[in-house]
Design brief:
Length: about 120
């Protein structure tokens, strides 16, 4: 399984950004996906997750109402729409895939990880 994240960049506070993660190597719609992030000097943290069907999602409190996770199973891609970005959102964002159709909120729930894409939000 390979995961290729893209879409990161430098934006200003209040701006929006959409991350994408293209998956290959197994039937995409069977498996839950997640986004995590790691800020400089901090541990990796959960951001959002979505079930294989796309019917269930869950968010970290810090991003709920600002971020939206979605997926296009026909294109084997998961997205993270990020609105109202703040400097506290600055981090490397990782997508991950788990071997279950359900979503997961722990890093240990996931078996495969993408390489990460850097999001930098300036004030």
């Amino acid at each position: 399984v390979q995961l290729q994240a893209s879409g990161g960049g430098l934006v200003q506070a209040g701006d929006s950004l959409r991350l994408s993660c293209a998956a290959s190597g197994r039937t995409f719609s069977y498996y839950g996906m997640g986004w995590f992030r790691q800020a400089p000097g901090k541990e990796r943290e959960f951001v959002a997750t979505i079930s294989g069907s796309g019917g269930s999602t869950y968010y970290a409190d810090s991003v709920a109402g600002r971020f939206t996770i979605s997926r296009d199973n026909a294109k084997s891609t998961v997205f993270l729409q990020m609105n109202s970005l703040s400097p506290e959102d600055t981090a490397v964002y990782y997508c991950a895939s788990r071997s279950s159709r359900w979503y997961g909120v722990q890093s240990s729930d996931y078996d495969y990880w993408g390489q990460g894409t850097l999001v930098t939000v300036s004030s």
